[in-house]
Amino acid sequence: xxxxxxxxxxxxxxxxxxxxxxxxxxxxxxxxxxxxxxxxxxxxxxxxxxxxxxxxxxxxxxxxxxxxxxxxxxxxxxxxxxxxxxxxxxxxxxxxxxxxxxxxxxxxxxxxxxxxxxxxxxxxxxxxxxxxxxxxxxxxxxxxxxxxxxxxxxxxxxxxxxxxxxxxxxxxxxxxxxxxxxxxxxxxxxxxxxxxxxxxxxxxxxxxxxxxxxxxxxxxxxxxxxxxxxxxxxxxxxxxxxxxxxxxxxxxxxxxxxxxxxxxxxxxxxxxxxxxxxxxxxxxxxxxxxxxxxxxxxxxxxxxxxxxxxxxxxxxxxxxxxxxxxxxxxxxxxxxxxxxxxxxxxxxxxxxxxxxxxxxxxxxxxxxxxxxxxxxxxxxxxxxxxxxxxxxxxxxxxxxxxxxxxxxxxxxxxxxxxxxxxxxxxxxxxxxxxxxxxxxxxxxxxxxxxxxxxxxxxxxxxxxx
Length: 465
Description:
The chain is an all-alpha fold and 465 residues long. The chain is built from 14 helices and two strands.
C-alpha cells in the first residue's frame, strides 16, 4: 500500500523508544510482535495531564475509581495502511439509540430562540413607547449589532477547528447571553441603581451602576451559561479552549442585545453622528470586550475541570469570574472619566493590548489542545488500540492534512475526517475519565468510540485497496 506523502511509513522518526510499557500483560498467542512485546512511547509529558494519581482526599477526590484502559480483543496491524486484520462483521440487528442528548440540545436552542424574540420584542416596544424617533432606526441598530456578533462567532468558530463542538451548543451559548443574561442583568442593574440613587444620590448611582453592579451582575449571568454547560454537556466541555469558546459566544450574545440598546439610545440623544461614534467605540474598537471577559471565566473553569474534574470545575466558578469582573470594571471606570484624548488613548490602547494577548492565548490553547490529544491517543497506542504512526497522523496539524490528502486520492476523505474527529473525541473522553474517575457514562462512551475507531480503520483499509 502507498503511504500518504511517505509520512506514515515506519521509520527512525516513528519507532517506539524500546522501553516496555509498565505493567504490560502477556498477549494471546499469535499476536503481532509489536503487540506481544508492547512498547511504550512517552508523548510529551503525560504526567502533566494525568490526574489519576492525585490525592484521594478533599475537593479533588474522584467520585469513581481511577480509569484504566482495556486491551483490544483483537490485535491491531503494524500499520493501519500496510496490512489488514479481519473484517468487522456488520451487525444488522443492532438497536438504534435514540439521540436524547441531541434532541435536548435543539429543544434548548428553540426555547432560547423564543426567549430572544420576546426579549428583543420587549426592548423594541420600550423604544417605540419612550422615543419620538422613527422606529426604522431600531432594526438598523440591530443590524449593526449583529455584524459585531458575526465577527465574534467566526472568531470562535475558527478557534474551534481542532476538536469542533456541536453547532447547537455554540448557538445555545450565544442565545443565553443575548436573551437570558441580558434581560436579567438589565433589571437587576436598573433596580440596584434605583436603590442607590434613592439612598445616596445621583453621583453614587452613576458610579455604582457601571463600575460595581454591571461587572458583577453581568459576568455572573453570562457565566451561568458555562456552569450549565459544564454539568449538562460535560462531554463537550473538556478544557480551557472549550471554556474560552463557550464564554466568547455567551459574551458576544450579551454584547449583541446590549449594543442594540446603546445604539438606539445614542441615536435619540445625538442623532446619526452619535450613532456612528458609538458603533465605532463599541462595535469596532471594543468588539471583543464582553467576549474576553466571559472567555476568561471559561478558561479558568475549563482548566480546573480538565485537571481535577467536574465538581472542582464548578466550584471554581466564583474565582473564575474575578478576572473578567476586574477588566469589565476597569473599562467602565475609564469610560466614565469624561473623555478627552488621554482617556481615549488609555482606553483603546489598553483594549488593543488585551485583545492581542487574548488572540495569542487562543493560539496557545490550540497548541495545548493538540498536545493533549497526542498524549491521550498515545495512551491508546501504548495499549495496542492504535499504531504510533496513526497517533502522528491523528494528533498533529500536518498529519491530519496529509492524511486527508491521502484519503482523498481514493475517495475516502469524508471517512478520514470522521476518523480524525472521533479520535479527538476519544482523547477528550480519556482525559475526562482521568479527571472524574470511571464515570459509567463516560466509560460507555469510551467503549463506543473505541469500537467506532476500529471500524473507521477497517473502512479506510478496504477503501484504500
